[in-house]
Predict the structure.
Amino acid sequence: MIEPTILSRPTYGTLEPRPGRAHLLIADDAGSAAIVDLFARAPADFHESATILSVTKDLSGDEAAALHRLSPATLTACPDMPAMLNTLAGLLAEAGMGVQIYLAGTEPLIGQAMRVVIEAGIDHSAIATEHRGSLARRVQCVHCKGFMDEVTTQPVTCAHCGLSLFVRDHYSRRLAAFQGVCINAEDQSEIVPAEEVFR
Amino acid sequence: MTITFRTETFRDDFTFRNSPAGIRRFPFPFHEDGYMYSVNIEPHRPGAPGSVFEHGFDVDEHYVAEMADRALVLAEDPLRCQALPHMDLASWDYLELVMTTKARDYPELFTLETDGDRWHWTNRPLGIDDRFTFGVTSTLPCPPLEYIGRQTQGDHCLLDQRDNNLWMDAGMVTTQADWSLDFDIGMNFFEWHAPVPLAHEMGVFQRAIKFLTSIPQGQPSRRLNWTLTVNPRLDTSPENYPKWGPDKLTVTPDTIGEKMHLRVELQTFWRLPRSNALVFPIRCYLLRFDDLVTIPKWARRMHRVIRDLPPELVTYKGMSRYHPMLVEWLAAHDDGAPTSPGIFPD
Ligand code: HEM
C-alpha cells in the first residue's frame, strides 16, 4: 500500500465494479491480478461489456493468459507502453459517454494511462485505480528534462545528463512523473551512494 | 519622481546594488521579532509615496536590468513562460491590467492609447512602441503573457478558478525561489504547495484558498514571503540549481555581509475581468546583509528571526549549511534593544 506523503503525490484505491454500460480496464503485468480480482467480485455479465487493454512483457505469458480466461468482449495486449498508450487514445476516441475506466499496476502505468484518459476529457470521477507490483518510479530530471521510466534507487544517476538526482515525492500528473533534483549540486565532491528503495 | 535605471547584472559579476533610497524602501517582511507561516494577507491598497506599496505594480531602479536578465533566462529555457491553451483570455486580461495600471501610475514612462480594440503601447524605459489589436495574438510580436511578462518586473502566475480551487495553468517564471513552472503547471493550489512544510498541518492553505477564490475584481490583496539567496541572483530555479548551488560554499563569516541577500517577494492577487482567472505577480526584492544592517531596527530583528526560525523552515529555505554562521554574524549587529512594531525603519 502506498502511504500518503505530500499532497501532490497520488494515492490509489482498490478496484470495485461500478455501474456502467461500458468498462475499459487497463493493466500491466503486475496489475493483471487486480483485474482478475475485480472480475471475481463483479456481476456475472460484467465481461460482456468489458474491454481489457494490457501492456505485457510476454504476449504468451501467464498474465496474458489470465486476462484471456476472463472472456472480455475485447482484449488487446501491447508489447510496450507507447503502443498501449496509442491504442488507449484510439479506444477513448471511440468510447461513448459514461465509460468506466479502471487502471491497475505500477505507478508508471497508472500515471501515463491516466494522463491519456484525462486528455480525452473523461472526468476524474469515472476513473478508478489500484496499485500493484513494484514501487519503481517514472522520474523527470528537472535539469535536462529527460525522463526515466523504471527508477528503483535513491539517488539515481540521470540517464541523460549524468547528474546524481534525489527523487522527490513531488509529482506532476501532467508529466506523469516524480521530480528528480541534483542531490549534490552545492558540493559536487559529495557522493551519495545509491540504495534500492523503490522496490 | 524620476527613476534612474541602473546598469547592473544578477549573474556572473553580480553588479546589482541598491541605492540609499532603494535600501530604505525595501519591503522588510518582519513586523515582529519572530517568524512563522500564517495567512498574512492584507488589502493591496496604495501605500506611502515612494514606498513599494505606492502603486499596484511597483517600477524601480532595477527595472531595465531585471528585464535584460529575464531575456537571458528565456533565451536558454523557453519553458519558463508557458500557458495552457485555455489561458489565452486570461493572458489578455493581464496585459490590460498591467498596461492600464502602469500608464496611469507612471505616465512619464508608459503610455497607452486605445481606440476600440486598436491599442498603441509605448514603454519608454525599454524603447518599445507597438500597435496591436487587443485579443488578436498574431498582432503582437509574441503571445500576450510573454509580451507583458517581458516588460513587468517579477514572476507572474495565471490561476484558472474551477471546483473551488485554483489551477496554475500559465506563468512567466524566471526569478523564482527554487520551484519549477514547467513541473508545476496544471497543478492545483494544494498540489503546487505540497513541498511546503508545516503550513498544511496548520490549516494555512485551507484558509487561504477560501479567501483567494472569493477575491472580487478591483480589490487586490497582497502578502510578503521571504528567503535568503547567496549573491544577488534572480534566477534561483531548480533547473539551474547546479549553477547556483555551489555559491553556498562561498559563504564565510568574512563574505556574509556582501554575499548574503534577504530575498523578499511582494505577492499580489488580482481578479481578472473577462476570464475570472486570478493573476499572482511575485515581485522579488533583494537586499545585501551589509545594507540591511545599516537600519538598526532591521539588524536587530533579522538576528532574532533567523536565530529562532523553526528547524523545518531553516531546511526548506535552504540555509542549513550556514545557519549557525548567519546567527553569529547577525548577533554582532543586535545590541538587544527593543524593536518597534511594524516593518518600516524607525
Ligand atoms: C494563488 C497564488 C499563489 C501561488 C501561485 C503560490 C505559489 C507558490 C509556490 C510555487 C511555492 C513554492 C512551493 C515549492 O515548490 O516548494 C509557494 C510557497 C509558499 N506559499 Fe504560495 N502561492 C500562492 C499563494 C499563497 C498564499 C495565499 C499563501 C498563504 C497565505 C501562500 C503560502 C506559501 C508559503 C508559506 C510557502 C513557503 C514559502 C517559504 O517558506 O519560502 N501561498 N507558493
Observations:
- Chain A has four helices and twelve strands.
- The longest strand of chain A covers residues 164-172.
- The first helix of chain A runs from residue 32 to 41.
